[in-house]
Amino acid sequence: MRETDFVSGFAKGLKVIEAFGETRQRLTIAEASKLTALDRATVRRSLLTLSELGYAVYDGKFFTLTPKILRLGHAYLAATPLPTIIQPHLDQLAERAGQNASASVLDGTEVVYIARASQRRVMSINLTPGSRLPAFCASMGRVLLAALPESEARSVLERTDLKANTPNTKIDPEELMAEFRRVRGQGYAVIDQELEIGLCSIAVPVENDRGQTVAAINIGAPAAYVPGSDMAERFLPLLKETQKALRLVLP
Amino acid sequence: MRETDFVSGFAKGLKVIEAFGETRQRLTIAEASKLTALDRATVRRSLLTLSELGYAVYDGKFFTLTPKILRLGHAYLAATPLPTIIQPHLDQLAERAGQNASASVLDGTEVVYIARASQRRVMSINLTPGSRLPAFCASMGRVLLAALPESEARSVLERTDLKANTPNTKIDPEELMAEFRRVRGQGYAVIDQELEIGLCSIAVPVENDRGQTVAAINIGAPAAYVPGSDMAERFLPLLKETQKALRLVLP
DNA sequence: GACATTTGTTCATATATCGCACAAAATGGC
DNA sequence: GCCATTTTGTGCGATATATGAACAAATGTC
To answer: Name one Pfam family in it (chains A, B) (predicted).
Structure first.
């Protein structure tokens, strides 16, 4: 790609939008400038452009994103068949399990939720399509990383900030690589309070008819209700069933 | 705002992203150019910029958005307190009603889903945060339009393409304005298969402690299961309860 | 209330982008 | 396989944007 094939004004504008995700919903020009490391004048122009287009509003001091900004992410969710195909299966899965079910794909070192059916609230954080979690300590992340060639999985770990969320979090790269091999062998991953105390989850890969892993689905449950050791027994049959159904409908 | 405070390259890039939402997930340069009415060279530069940043991938022929694009919409969902505050209440509401519950805000002539708790699948379309429906024929839309000054509600209707989705869809502006007054008076709106045959829904406004309507929540149910005439009796108490709880926690 | 600091805005100018026109490549129909 | 059509890539002049400094306004501090 040539230098002139890059629209830096566009790239900077996108950076400004993402700056809103990192903190609160209101940003001053100076705050956005700090967060993005862009010149105040440049940030100001980007923000005024967003306002002009209705993606943000400006009260003279603070800029706030409007719901119109959701059109951008929705361009992906609506256009990509995966979330649309998976959602009904997820709804059914969550209903039968009586617990939350989610689907995600890998984006760099993180898993990105693309669909979710919530039955009850067990996590302290609010997960919606677009939410991100570190892959190494999430059940779906383990499944997705296990599906990668070992060298790539290792590369992801190297780029990850391996910090422990709970005393249970595995953060040793070698231990994690061994875990990926186990997951690959058994076809599922169980997380026992590695992400958040009190939360267990189990995930399986979603494969297309050529056997390629294109996503992961999981079920989360309160550890007090279903101990980590019981997760597979309780939920694996349901997950396997959904996995099988999806294999038949995915392109 | 001065002319030079507008970054047209940014605006054009956003238009290109939205072009993906209108059709399928893969777009060629020429297709994107047609959809956006932008010059091919311009679209090409925008798409290459998206690829360079990891928001899209290019196989030499087609451009496809990646999950990274969800960061943009998520910047709103994560940064705006509303969806985060509403979600757990919605989960509880859906569980108690045994039906899908959603929350939305108004954006122009459309309602935009900002949170959703699904219990079962009744609609043919897949609704996720960011999904949009015409406000005039959706229960939450009726509630949100009823909360506007009459002149503004009328202005929205004038800008709306009032086309009937089903034989039940009300499309006469005067009839709709009368409906808004009724909704304002009774404090809820019921839709009986106006959006989709077989689907009924009931919505109430979500108000903050100053009485301002900041969103709407609804419950949807299959018409075969709960006729439109029974919606209020069945679900209004639950909705009112959630409404009341939200009034106490919203800023 | 005066000073110091931060923030928002404006301006001139160097620089990068835009859209056009053309060339090259790919596609499709027969 | 060939031609017509569509699509993609590129060079260039006109035009628009980014930059950083300078100034004005607001905010915070003592």
So the answer is: IclR_C
**pLDDT tens profile A122-159:** 555 667 788 899 999 999 999 999 999 999 999 999 99
In the A/B pair of chains, how many CB contacts fall below 8 A?
233
pLDDT 10s digits, A81-117:
888 889 889 988 988 998 889 999 999 999 999 988 8
CA A203 to C1' C23, whole Å = 53
Q: Are residues B36 and B125 in the same domain?
A: no
This prediction's pTM: 0.86
**Closest to B215 measured CA to CA, from B116, B126, B104:** B104
Provide CB contacts within 8 A for A195, sequence distance 6+.
Answer: A133, A137, A138, A165, A166, A169, A201
Contact A14 B9 (CB under 8 A): no
Domain count, chain A: 2
